[in-house]
Amino acid sequence: MSRFPNAKSLVVKLADFPSFLESDLGLNIRWAADRESGKCLCPLHGDSDPSFGLKNYDDGWGFNCFGCNSKGTVVEFFMHYYGMEHDEAVASVAERFEINIEGLSVIQETIKAPIKTGGESFNMKKLTEFHAQAATQCRLIMRKRPGDGAIRRWIEEAFERMDDCIENCDAEGMEKIYLEASKWNT
Ligand SMILES: [Zn+2]
Known about the structure:
Elements: H1 7-14, H2 17-24, E1 30-31, E2 37-40, E3 52-57, E4 60-65, E5 71-73, H3 74-82, H4 86-96, H5 104-110, H6 112-116, H7 121-144, H8 149-168, H9 171-184
Antiparallel strand pairs: 1-2, 2-3, 3-4, 4-5
Helix pairs in contact: 1-4, 3-4, 7-8, 7-9, 8-9
The structure holds zinc ion.
């Protein structure tokens, strides 16, 4: 069992895999008109005619190479390309795309009770996602405005409110914090 059971689906959903291929690996993606799918040279084998297909699914970007038959998500790509183990790849993708996966296990522990008593797993998913995004936004704010006392106090308070939302399984409250944090970044 992986150390990061839900972290993988979160990073796959939030990571902008195409921008990584373009800006980090310098690949040239030939996009379909709707930009929901594209093709480029495969970085995993000596490719001369683009055989690496990309597609935007509901749960994130996937790839499929008709040349070397490798396929998967950005996590499998990191595993192949960098020779990483699964958990290491999940952590690297999270770091590269500034996705917060810390605290996921805490949330899963805390919300076990509401699920058993009829709460929906949908709520848990939302709570987990908004928490990760709110925390990521807060880190961005701190990086942009270091030494700003008012911001620091707001963030400290936001983290306290996030803890309350986790305790109460309050996905809506968490979304509100995420939206407020996003405003500081616009
Ligand atoms: Zn390939």
